[in-house]
Design a protein that fits this description.
Elements lengths: L1 E9 L3 H18 L3 E6 L4 H7 L5 H9 L2 E6 L14 H11 L4 E7 L12 H4 L3 E7 L11 E5 L2 E5 L6 H15 L5 E6 L5 H14 L6 E6 H10 L6 E4 L1 H15 L8 E3 L5 E3 L18 H13 L4 H16 L13 H11 L21
Parallel strand pairs: 1-2, 1-3, 3-12, 5-10, 8-9, 8-10
Antiparallel strand pairs: 4-5, 4-11, 6-7, 11-12
Helix pairs in contact: 1-10, 1-12, 6-7, 8-9, 10-11, 11-12
């Protein structure tokens, strides 16, 4: 089988971590007897510099034809002065909307060997295995109207939060289906005490829950959820929330693993290619220095194998290799170590083993987030 992937390395450290992830993906695919075909295109600031737009229609069409899309990161201070409609981040938003990927999956799993890296006490971190499901194409990031205007009182800026029942229902159903493969608990996060959109969110979550009688549903206000994510993170199983809340909460979750550089993500829709990217940003201050942590990108490659290709054993090969290198003491600078990106990538490549027997993992049980 030929696996076609569109690579969008992006800006800053994006090209470096993308290269690392594709090397690991290529190794695992080759060992499984598949050919990996990668087509590189520009997005974000690099696309703006080359083509005058953060995402071109030609690149979007190439993405739609692929089996999966892999993104590095976009943005940086080099483009701070461009108009809002042309900012590099607009390329990412247009990509998500153009691919109709409405659910962003962000697994947060602590490594037993890295508990001391987080500023939180180790006893709070043991057993943390959260799957955050973030709605991706609605909410304040896409709501209209949005504008700035001069008034006698000064500049007035307006952003609009919009959600429909169907937008909420489809991401909720995905969260509940995923929960049936895990610990059967969904926590829906909103701000229903203040926002009308959140009241619709809560009503819709409750309605969807009736379709999944074996799954427990809890509701939490976003301020309470942000506190409990730090005080009792192991209590969460699947956490589902709207676009902006999910963006903020998953960045907060980076403290659980010790670094944002550890977190992968998968953006999925009802069909077409998935979009895979590490959670971290473009980190232009360390671009080209070799200091970037490639693990979030490498684990995103594992999600690509799982969700777009249905290659669960191969996905676990990568995840188990990552577990091995951390158990052996490998650390990049953000985790208090001395290894650079190349060292860590080579360590993961060397740690790849044949697929483990079905259901087995290193250290402890992993709750697969595979969705068909």
């Amino acid at each position: 089988m030929t696996i076609t992937v569109v690579a969008l390395p992006g800006d800053g450290i994006g090209p470096e971590v993308t290269d690392a992830a594709l090397r690991v993906l290529g190794r695992v695919a080759a060992e499984a007897g598949h050919r990996l075909e990668v087509n590189h295109h520009a997005v974000g600031g690099s696309s703006l510099d080359r083509h005058g737009a953060p995402l071109t229609e030609e690149v979007l069409e190439a993405c739609r034809r692929a089996d999966a899309v892999f993104l590095g990161a976009v943005g940086g201070p080099s483009w701070d002065g461009v108009p809002a409609a042309l900012r590099p981040e607009q390329g990412l938003l247009a990509l998500r909307k153009g691919l109709a990927v409405y659910a962003n999956l962000r697994p947060v799993r602590t490594q037993a060997s890295l508990l001391s890296v987080s500023p939180l006490r180790p006893e709070r971190l043991r057993g943390v295995d959260i799957l955050v499901v973030r709605e991706l194409t609605g909410g304040v990031y896409f709501g209209q109207p949005r504008f700035r205007e001069e008034t006698p009182q000064g500049v007035r800026a307006v952003d609009t939060v919009v959600y429909t029942t169907e937008e909420i229902r489809r991401v909720m159903r995905l969260a509940f289906r995923l929960a049936t493969t895990r610990r059967a608990t969904v926590t829906s996060v909103d701000k229903a005490n203040v926002l009308e959109t959140s009241r619709l969110w809560r009503e819709t979550a409750t309605a969807v829950a009736s379709e999944f009688p074996t799954v427990r549903l809890d509701h939490l206000l976003v301020d309470t959820a942000s506190m409990r994510l730090i005080t009792s993170p192991a209590a969460f199983d699947v956490l589902v929330t709207e676009n902006m809340f999910g963006d903020i909460l998953t960045d907060e979750a980076g403290v659980l693993t010790g670094s944002l550089g550890m977190l992968p993500s998968a953006s999925l829709g009802d069909g077409g290619p998935g979009l895979y990217e590490p959670v971290h940003g473009s980190a232009p201050d360390i671009a080209g220095t070799g200091k970037a942590n490639p693990i979030g990108a490498i684990l995103s490659a594992a999600l690509l194998l799982r969700h777009s290709l249905g290659m669960e054993p191969e996905a676990r090969q990568i995840e188990d290799a990552v577990d091995r290198v951390f158990n052996e003491g490998c650390r990049t600078a953000d985790l208090g170590g001395t290894m650079n990106l190349e060292d860590m990538t080579e360590a993961v490549l060397e740690a790849i083993r044949p697929p483990a027997p079905s259901g087995q993992r290193l250290e402890r049980t992993h709750h697969s987030s595979k969705e068909h």
